Amino acid sequence: MVRFDNVGMRYGSGPEVLRDISFSLTAGSFHFLTGASGAGKSTLLKLLYLAAQPTRGLITLFDRDLATCPRDDLPDLRRRIGVVFQDFRLLDHLSALDNVALPLRIAGMPEDDIRSHVSELLAWVGLGDHLEARPAVLSGGQKQRVAIARAVVGRPDLLVADEPTGNLDDASALRLLHLFEELHRLGTTVVIASHNEQMIERLGHPVLHLAEGRLFSRSAP
Fold it and tell me: pLDDT by residue (tens digit) across 80-98?
């Protein structure tokens, strides 16, 4: 599913943020990504969801070498990836339902199916009464739930999440973790960046740990 071989990443002429990163993720695996602030977690996630290119090294995604992959093929690869951004990145002029529906509309799903599917998912994450609400009237936790619903609505092959429970109360966080677990059971490869050691210990999945730009792995707690 994912393979990094001696990947390095720097911004401009600055020092490398990531150094000699090598790891692989099998299809259907679940990993947490940890590390102190500034360790390079967000940069590694950007490489995973194709928002950045490495300075050196090779990345293989869905059996495609990204260094030789034609640019015209990248949109199709991105559609197989669900992303939960730390800053939500919702479209302010769209309702919660329309924000979540975007990946399905891009994929060409019939509109009647979209509405029923999205409505059911938003109800499941506790936003069934906010289908037509725009982001400006939603709380931080509600925006986070909309962002998560948008990331998972299309059953992506790879789900990448940056601190997905950071704005949620314990009950909402646990509910969404069950959603991630269900996607994992259905075959989605999941990578979650988190500082929440309690959550990591509770779920018991392997951990990738970044320290000073280098990656270390450890078994499930």
Answer: 999 988 888 999 999 999 9
Instruction: Express each pLDDT in 120-164 by its tens digit.
Output: 999 988 899 999 999 999 998 899 889 989 999 988 999 999 988
- How far CA 26 is from CA of 31, 106, 157, 181, 200, in Å, comes to 10, 27, 11, 16, 19
> Backbone dihedral region of 157: left (phi > 0), alpha (psi from -120 to 50 degrees) or beta?
alpha
Q: Do 1 and 27 touch, CB atoms closer than 8 A?
A: yes
The SS3 assignment for 59 reads strand
Mean pLDDT, the chain, as a whole number? 91
- Measured CA to CA, the distance from residue 138 to residue 90 in angstroms comes to 11
Contact between 215 and 35 under an 8 Å Cβ cutoff? The reply is: no
| Token pair of 112 as six digits | 């009647």
